[in-house]
């Protein structure tokens, strides 16, 4: 079971389980510190980061406003270069198209580079069902695949939650018997994977940005695996979310820079690969056949809605790397392949409120995500917008909460009612209070008082003091 | 200068001392305090939970309560920011949008008001101790008040200021988040308190009652010898 949803457990159970995983939490806080420091350095050296962000936002907004025209231009140019383009309305259409190619080619083995959208359309499981062996070649994805197809916990570093000892244990399943030294383990992965590239029938990659003016696909990697995936097998399939387009090479350059600086704090990644169609007449390597699968899967419903800014996302995970909630609960708590603030906004939109209704509440609305986003997506505002939809349109909020909020609406709209509440608060709470604090509260206060004290209401409200004071001044 | 005090519901009910300190401090700095008694709550708890309809009544009440004010000053960055949001919330509403804008324009968080309107950076406060400061998310990121509280704190006689590690990270309050996601919020505040302890400070200063209630509640539970003070109380110490 993959696709968007990665767990059948209840949200609360996932939170509980992951909060108790002290190793995972240690790994994440260390990684967040690393990412934040590196990102900060790469952002500051530019000297005008806010201008870069504004430019990034402008590019993404422009593309979304003109998406139909750019999709047309892109597909025309891919076809001009001898590639095939397929628009998939749903995830089923996308995976069916790819399965058809695999069947036609009688493909036994398929190598893949990292791609979130292929996870979204459940591609690996679908291909395995028709008898293909699918090999993930991104190191982190390779690790997770060996570990019984464990879902990713981070959109850039899918195995962020694993340490080297755990990775060594996972590698042992594939016959690894050496130390937990990263170099030795990397060598093992390299040797294993090299053989897979050479014997694969199809290579599947994702797409960071498709360039409309030339039909070129941009791949941003650090391991170079996408180059081998796209250069060695005879057939290449690129899968992309329909919004991942830039007009020209110029905008691609801006966005790649925003992406690599924001995500891993690099000026550029080791590889930025540009691929245009199948192998040309005078080229020595590259695929003989090239397919571009453009996936909608709910995106066109977001387009034109109040949630449209989420389509600006360039999947850098900067928001994940600063999120104080993600920091403690980790990626798997979200129950979606998309975790952190971006996941909390995107998952309910693509996968529905039924499975993901808790995610918009897994935020203190601290705004760290919005502040760090390189294309200025107002993430915390979109989380708030989800809450509003859940309450007002979906009717998915608990009844007790509705009643409390109704009462709040009344009480906070008129001072006489509030005065009464303020007056009775102290005597009502007094049975729970000791030394001016409440250590074990009733109702909604229970969750609070599990870990912290709650102040007992003032015996004299401020407004009463103020009134007396003003009287005293007058007399 | 006449200042209308927006004391916030949390201070009104739970932290009266912060309200008193704010009044005394502003008076000492030459302001005349007006306290519109019809004020209640800015509506943020319901609004942030998604109950926009329910929260609008309290917002209209606040707009009316402060209609006459010249300056509205509040000892809370988060509640000040909520007032700043009113024009967006009432956008397109012929009766309320303009009024909401008026309120937003004349609203100031306390330290911002002292430094940028009164143009005072040394309020003549004296307090002995080593203090660290928690930067509240809404005040820092959304309202954009970053330097004012630090400048004021650094000018308090006898007070040593130490920076808090991970100061930009949320303490886990987040209004209803702290009860709705109580265990996650609990882990967040636990880490915050550990970071505060690591500074060796004996006073934690903040400028938002919500964050202070959260952090203070955890400090109280763990029995750490750290005094929790609102910045108004620090600046009113003599």
TrEMBL record, chain B:
Gene Ontology MF term list: oxidoreductase activity
GO cellular component: cytosol
Protein name as annotated: Lactate utilization protein A
Cysteine-rich domain ranges (all copies): 3-84, 132-215
UniProt-listed Pfam families: CCG (PF02754)
HAMAP family (alphabetical): LutA
Function as written in the Swiss-Prot or TrEMBL entry: Is involved in L-lactate degradation and allows cells to grow with lactate as the sole carbon source.
InterPro entries: Cys_rich_dom, LutA
GO biological process: lactate metabolic process
Family under the similarity heading: Belongs to the LutA/YkgE family.
């Amino acid at each position: 079971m993959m696709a968007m949803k990665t767990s059948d457990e209840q949200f609360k159970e996932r939170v509980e389980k992951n909060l108790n995983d002290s190793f995972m939490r240690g790994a994440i806080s260390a990684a967040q510190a690393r990412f934040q420091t590196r990102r900060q350095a790469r952002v500051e050296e530019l000297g005008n980061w806010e201008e870069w962000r504004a430019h990034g936002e402008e590019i993404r907004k422009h593309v979304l406003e003109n998406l139909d025209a750019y999709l047309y231009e892109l597909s025309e140019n891919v076809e001009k270069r001898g590639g095939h383009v397929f628009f998939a309305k749903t995830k089923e259409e996308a995976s069916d198209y790819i399965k058809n190619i695999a069947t036609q080619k009688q493909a036994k083995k398929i190598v893949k580079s990292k791609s979130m959208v292929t996870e979204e359309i459940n591609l690996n499981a679908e291909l395995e069902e028709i008898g293909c062996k699918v090999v993930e070649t991104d190191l982190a994805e390779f690790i997770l695949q060996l570990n019984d197809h464990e879902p990713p916990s981070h959109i850039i570093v899918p195995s962020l939650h694993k340490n080297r000892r755990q990775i060594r244990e996972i590698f042992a399943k594939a016959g690894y018997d050496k130390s937990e030294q990263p170099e030795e383990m990397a060598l093992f992965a390299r040797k294993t994977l090299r053989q897979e590239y050479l014997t694969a029938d199809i290579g599947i990659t994702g797409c960071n940005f498709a360039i409309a003016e030339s039909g070129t696909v941009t791949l941003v990697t650090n391991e170079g695996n996408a180059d081998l995936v796209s250069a060695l097998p005879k057939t290449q399939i690129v899968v992309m979310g329909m919004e991942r387009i830039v007009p020209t090479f110029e905008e691609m350059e801006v966005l790649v820079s925003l992406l690599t600086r924001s995500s891993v704090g690099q000026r550029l990644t080791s590889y930025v690969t540009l691929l245009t169609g199948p192998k040309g007449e005078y080229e020595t390597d590259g695929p003989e056949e090239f397919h571009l699968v453009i996936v909608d899967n709910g995106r066109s419903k977001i387009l034109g809605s109040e949630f449209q800014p989420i389509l600006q996302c360039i999947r850098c995970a900067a928001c994940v790397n600063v999120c104080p909630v993600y920091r403690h609960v980790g990626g798997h708590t979200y129950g979606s392949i998309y975790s952190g603030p971006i996941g909390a906004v995107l998952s309910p939109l693509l996968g529905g409120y039924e499975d993901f209704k808790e995610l918009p509440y897994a935020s203190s609305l601290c705004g760290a995500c919005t502040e760090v986003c390189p294309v200025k997506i107002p993430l915390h505002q979109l989380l708030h917008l989800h809450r509003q939809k859940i309450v007002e349109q979906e009717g998915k909020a608990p009844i007790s909460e509705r009643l409390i909020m109704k009462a709040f609406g009344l009480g906070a709209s008129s001072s006489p009612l509030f005065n009464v509440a303020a007056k009775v608060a102290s005597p009502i709470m007094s049975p729970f209070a000791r030394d001016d604090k409440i250590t074990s509260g009733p109702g909604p206060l229970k969750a609070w008082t599990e870990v912290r004290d709650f102040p007992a209401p003032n015996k004299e409200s401020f407004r009463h003091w103020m009134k007396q004071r003003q009287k005293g001044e007058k007399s | 200068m006449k200042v209308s005090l927006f004391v916030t519901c949390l201070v009104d009910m739970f932290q009266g001392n912060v309200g008193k300190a704010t009044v005394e401090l502003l008076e000492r700095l030459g302001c005349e305090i007006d306290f519109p008694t019809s004020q209640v709550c800015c509506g943020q708890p319901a609004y942030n939970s998604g109950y926009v309809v329910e929260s609008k009544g309290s917002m209209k009440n606040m707009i009316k309560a402060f209609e006459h004010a010249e300056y509205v000053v509040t000892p809370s960055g988060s509640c000040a920011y909520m007032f700043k949001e009113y024009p967006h919330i009432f956008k397109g509403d012929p009766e309320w949008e303009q009024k909401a804008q008026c309120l937003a324009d004349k609203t100031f968080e306390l330290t911002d008001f002292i430094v940028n309107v009164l143009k005072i950076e040394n309020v003549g406060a004296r307090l002995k101790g080593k203090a660290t400061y928690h930067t509240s998310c809404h005040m820092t990121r959304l309202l954009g008040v970053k330097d004012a509280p630090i400048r004021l704190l650094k000018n308090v006689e006898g007070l040593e200021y130490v920076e808090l590690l991970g100061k930009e990270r949320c303490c886990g309050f987040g209004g209803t988040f702290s009860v709705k996601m109580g265990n996650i919020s609990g882990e967040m505040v636990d880490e915050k308190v550990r970071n505060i302890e690591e500074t060796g400070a004996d006073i934690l200063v903040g400028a938002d009652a919500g964050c202070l209630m959260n952090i203070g509640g955890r400090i109280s539970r763990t029995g750490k010898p750290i005094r929790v003070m609102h910045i108004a109380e620090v600046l009113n110490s003599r």
